[in-house]
Structure formats: structure tokens, C-alpha cells
Amino acid sequence: MIPESPFRTISILGVGLMGASLAGALKSLPNPPVVRGSTPDIREGKKALDRGILDFYSPENRTAAQGADLIILAAPPSIIPKIWEEIGKDVSSDTLLTDLASVKGPLYSQFQKFHAQRFRRYISSHPMAGREQQGVDASRPDIFKGKLTFLIPFSEEDNKNDLIHLQSFWSLIGSPTQIKLTAEEHDRILARISHLPHLIAFALLGTLTQTPQRNALPHWDWPAQKGGALSDILRIAWSTPELWSDILIQNQSELLSGLNEYEQDLRMLRKILEEKDQDSLTSLLERWQEDGMEDMKHGRED
Question: Which of 222, 189, 217, 14 shows the shortest CA–CA distance to 103?
């Protein structure tokens, strides 16, 4: 029996990298659902239509959301409340909604205060997938393959069937593992496993570009001189600044907590370096590696 999506008409509001990748994954299924989509960028919308990953396109969210069994908001965190306002009067209270935002706390608060009565079936999603590029051209239908997805119930009604259907949906397009948790815990986790690494990568890029102003290095040419280690670290520093400034500010409180923890470890390293204590440095690096390997082992076993 060929598995099919539990939702037969799906609206993706925001056909950028993630939205277009999701549409492509859905259209790659043996028995694909009808996929409707929106983006204010008409060229991107037409491109998605031409590639066959959308069955219907509109620049207006209200129009694209009509008749959907599942509505997916694939927009930056600060834009999502505006979309709620746009589609609120036209979407049935029985329609299931989700979003792909990287930060949940501020959204959850606004949802409970202004939209909980309107959208009675809402489970937020966060698939741990992405790329540095943006737009339909950068989209990939296999971007979710093997990736974990966080699920955060927003609506007060505990609809187990909705959770089961959404889990089946994510599994079908390649995300085999889903974790249900609160918005608060999600943001604490993401601050440390995603947002802090991006902040560090951006800061390192800044350090590199400012080096000629801070040091007399006539042969300095870091793009030509870099090795694999620097390339690996800097990969995420090329992510879209507009999107990531939104994410980092939205998760400010948890990100600052994570940054404080990271700075504590940096101060520890600095002290050891200042003392030229190689034995202590070796012991510390070995302990961090051992702890990390133990964490990774348990993660694979789970």
C-alpha cells in the first residue's frame, strides 16, 4: 500500500527556501496532495508553479489558504502574527495550522492572547533543516530527510488525532523523528544548538574581516588561506542576515543565557592560555570531547 499524506489539500504560506522545499517534497510523493502556495514575490511564485511544486499560486495569503486541510506558515517569526491577522476571518476554526518558525515563545504568547479562540487546532512545527541560500532556486525536496522535527502544541484543546496526523505528515516527507515539547523548552534548546552557533559564526566572520584594521599583516588573505576548519565554521555565517537578525532578537532572553554560558567557558580557556598550562588545557579539551561523545552516543541510541 502506497502511503499518502493525511492531508489532501495543503496551503504553504511563504514559498521561500523552506516552503518551496516542503512543496517539492510533497509533490515527490507517489500520491501527492494538492499544494497551494503564496509569496508576495510574484517571480518566485510563478517559478514554483512552473516547476510543478505548486498547483495554485497567489500573492495573497488569504486566497492561498482557502480550502486547505492543513495550512503551513513558512515565514519568519515576526511575520507570522501578521499572517494570522490576514487569514483569520477566512479560515475555518476546524482547519489544522502549523508553522516552521525557529522561535516559539513570543508566537505562543501572542497566539494565546489574540488568536486562540480563532484557531482551535494549532500545533507549531520546527523541522531541523535549512540551507544558507534562500528562495525557490535553493529549495530541495530532500532537505527534511533524516531530520528531527519539534512539535509544539499551541491550542489548548488536546487533539491527539491532530498530533498523530502531523507526525505522520512529517515522517512521510522524510523527518522520521518528532519531539513534542513546550515553546519555552524549545527556545532554550534552540538557543544553544542553533542560534548561538550562528551568532558565533557571524562574530568570527566579523573578526576576520576587521583583522587588517587591527593588525599589521601584509600577507593577510583569509579567503585564500583558509582551511577546511574555517570553511566549516563559517558556512552558516552566510545565512540571510535579515532572517537571522529576526530569529536572534525573537529569542533574545534564551540566547543571552546561552551566550553567558559560552562566555564562562571562554574565560576558563583564556585563563589556562594566559598561564600556559598545557596539562590543564589538554585535560579540559579531553573532558569536553569525552562528554560530547557520550552525549552523541546516547543521542544515536534514542
Answer: 189
